[in-house]
Amino acid sequence: MIYTHNDLLKLIHDTRAVSIWNHTEGPVFWYAANVPGPFYVNTEMVIGSALSEKLLREITAIIAGTVDVQARAEQLNHLILTAYKANPAWKRLIATMIDRARTAFPANAFTVVSGGERRDWLFSIPFAHDSELPHLFLFKNKGSFCEHPLKAGQNVLHVSDLIHHATSFFDSWQPAMKDLHLGCCGNLCVTVRGDNGLRRLSEAGQKTVALVTVDVDFFRRLHAADLISREVFEEIAVFFASAQDWAVTYLIGKPHLFDAPGCDAKSFERLRVFLSRDPWNLRPKHETFFATMQKAVDLRLAEAA
After folding, report:
1. At a CB cut-off of 8 Å and minimum separation 6, what does 46 contact?
2. Shortest CA distance to 38 belongs to which of 292, 263, 233?
3. Which residues fall within 8 angstroms of residue 123, CB to CB, at 6 or more apart?
4. Quick check: 151 and 94 in contact, CB under 8 A?
5. d(CA 279, CA 224)
6. Whether the predicted pLDDT of 305 surpasses 90
7. Mind spelling out the 3-state secondary structure of 42-59?
């Protein structure tokens, strides 16, 4: 049994794989581009937040503690597949991904499944297992390992959790495949966020298939299913139309939403960069607010010195 699109929407909402902030309480979410936003995508949480956190922690320990790549791969396979086989919702999700791959790609389009360190493996390893295909481990150091011998010219399907900017694919995963003289027939992921990565992949001749696209229509469907309120949907619609307008409406004049004194180190650094670079050109019309936020940042830096 596979998930329908509405099933997937509910799964992503209920597991908080897409988290939505409360604009009256905060704190705001921060993206890697050092800009704030009203929601955040943690795709791995579709298998359960506690389980995904536990597995990622153990994956990190295996990578750090096991130098031999074959032993490392064996440990990772055992860790992930043991948890996978005991989780019906996770198995149903992988069945859905396999079904989507069968309809989206020609028969025999790929004979190897790859996944990149670390989150991809939560999906690529069980996908390869249930498809009875070799799994190619791709590591951040551009190394790789497959327990089955690979031949030059074989085609790979890259399976991942999320595609956003596709930076890891182009900087690490694709070069590793090329070093092995493998082709890549395309990408299959659980979620896509934004169109930058899709555009880059398309321009490179890479077909991309996603179970869910996190766009304004995604949130519209959540609202139609009574999973989020109209107020939440309308705010996110503003964000997709103009991040600057969203910031003016929901952030400017509300320093507590940033929690400069108490936010975690990564959020604080992103706040500091956001204020210094002003990527949305907000400062000229909101100088007083920027000055207030800069004072809070400077105070925290001084206290830490």
Report:
1. 11, 12, 15, 17, 89, 90, 93, 190
2. 233
3. 93, 94, 97, 115, 159, 160, 161, 189, 190
4. no
5. 33
6. no
7. CHHHHHCHHHHHHHHHHH
Query: Structure tokens of 227?
Result: 């999973």
Structure tokens at 124: 């690529």
Domains and CATH numbers, the chain: 5-41+218-304 (no CATH), 44-214 (3.40.50.2020)
State how far Cα 299 lies from the chain centre.
Answer: 33
Measured at the alpha carbon of residue 52, what is the angle toward residues 14 and 29, in degrees to the nearest 5?
65
- Euclidean distance between CA atoms 190 and 209, whole angstroms: 9
Taking only Cα atoms into account, the Rg of the chain, rounded to an integer number of angstroms, comes to 21
Helices of type H across the chain:
5-14, 49-65, 69-85, 88-104, 121-131, 167-168, 174-179, 196-203, 216-224, 230-241, 243-250, 265-277, 287-304
Cα angle, residue 47 at apex, residues 103 and 136 outer, rounded to 5°: 60
Read off the pLDDT of residues 138-187 as tens digits, 9 standing for 90 and up: 999 989 999 999 999 999 999 999 999 999 999 999 999 999 999 999 99
Phi, psi at 94, each rounded to 5°: -65, -40
Q: What is the pTM of this model?
A: 0.95
Element containing residue 111 per DSSP (H, E): none
* Angle between helices 88-104 and 121-131 in degrees, nearest 10: 70
